[in-house]
Amino acid sequence: MSHEMRVLTGDKMPRLLREIADPPERLYLKGELPDESTNKYLCVVGPRKYSPYGKAVCEKLISGLRGYSVVVISGLALGIDAIAHQAALDADLTTIAIPGSGLHPRVLYPATNRGLAERILSRRGVLLSEFEPTFKPERWSFEKRNRIMAGLSHAVLVIEAHEKSGTMITARLATEYNRDVLAVPGSVFSPTSAGVHMLIRLGA
To answer: pTM for this one?
Structure first.
């Protein structure tokens, strides 16, 4: 990837992210962050193993945001994350990808979405990480990444989720950070509906 990487620290970091209890010390950035004062940052999360319903809902909701000042944030992961990023590109929306790895092309995770990362940058999107550029992802780094996704957002939209999952961790963090949590109801027969239905019972 030819886009220059920059480092943000202190008051150069996004205001929303500086508000949380455990903000990062620095952020590595490719691309230009859209103005927080004139855009709504929407984090879209869901499982890697999604249902056809989840995919359709994700694409439909994001396509409906075309023309609005909405920035779509997700984690570049397989599944709903990648669908959300691509749907944002298709709707001519800016999208921010926050992987659980560093941003160097050699380690950017998952490798299968490196082409998607290129498309995001080519369409005025952003790659963002608090990890050193050559950091290879670890199990713990994804949960740590989730707090960046939640903290950077005005609201978190949960498409589908198992009751115990990274998606639910992101939703919990959003609640702790006083962000809006939005949840899409699903089929009572689907295990990926359990998490979202629990969020709705709790007031999402």
So the answer is: 0.94
